[in-house]
Amino acid sequence: MNKIGVLTSGGDAPGMNAAIRSVVRVALHHGLNVVGIRRGYAGLIDGDFYQMNRSSVSDIIQRGGTILLSARCEEFKTPEGRQKALHNMQQEGIEALVVIGGDGSLTGAQKIDKELGIPVIGIPGTIDNDLAGTEITIGCDTAMNTVIDAINKIRDTATSHERTFVIETMGRRCGFLTVMTALAGGADAILIPEMNYDLDDICNKLIKRQEMGRLHNIVLVAEGVGEDFKTNRNLDESPAFFISRLISDKTGQETRVIILGHLQRGGSPTVRDRVLASRMGAKAVELLLAGESNIMIGIEGRELVYHKISEVLSTKKEIDMGLYELGTILS
């Protein structure tokens, strides 16, 4: 093997640059050439390639986002689009790929391995932490810290004005980000897609606290509950606004809505994300050199682990219900 490619795909996550840096420098250490592929799978189809060296990844470990850029690519989902990608990789002499991203990115990686015959190693990069086969994904720790920082600041004004704030966090259909930040941030109520919830019970709980003199609250809502709300209530708006109005009507408290949105995806990665990304990037190169393919690298405890991408994609990741229950008890 003489030349490998590296790309980032899907939603950006803090730590992706650290992973790119590690892939490039470890590959160069082993005498490989490295091709950077801009804009993910769209870059494969467009042939948006450039040769990378040590300087290409200087001064990026502390930066959020991805220097390789990212994009959605519907064309790659077609056999014709993937054949274009194969042609461009063959023309460039790319013999293997490292793909950094979430489940959509891994789905594309699996097709490259199975259909196109190009060895691929996947690195899990997503703030949602919704991939099986790993305790945590690159970017999630930074996102959690960003949410906690927001909760701390929102709590100050909630206390000052005796208001209830409904805060919507990201995570798609996975409530991990919400559970962890609710526990660490001392939220007063937690709504996640994995658990049934009763809004009347939540309001009654807030009313009891109001009677005890507690006039401010933090309610955390995972964005994934929105699908249930929109289906059951015919809503065009975010469920956070519906929840806010219901709390206001039932408790008489002033309520405000904060949708953190893409704020959670940016920012300088934490130490944990930088170290995790660096370890995974190095291991990806080592696995390719060992002849491995169609594998996603994960972490369990302190040890890196490896799973077939097909297994990762076919397994639903379960969140720790014990942490959810603890967050509820402590609220």
TrEMBL record:
Catalyzed reactions: beta-D-fructose 6-phosphate + ATP = beta-D-fructose 1,6-bisphosphate + ADP + H(+)
Subcellular location: Cytoplasm
MF (Gene Ontology): 6-phosphofructokinase activity; AMP binding; ATP binding; fructose-6-phosphate binding; identical protein binding; metal ion binding; monosaccharide binding
PROSITE patterns with a match to the protein in the record: PHOSPHOFRUCTOKINASE
Active-site annotation: D128
Keyword annotations: Allosteric enzyme, ATP-binding, Cytoplasm, Glycolysis, Kinase, Magnesium, Metal-binding, Nucleotide-binding, Transferase
Residues the record lists as binding ATP: G11, R72, C73, G102, D103, G104, S105
Coiled-coil annotated residue ranges, if any: none
Domain of life: Bacteria
Protein name: ATP-dependent 6-phosphofructokinase
Organism: Iocasia fonsfrigidae
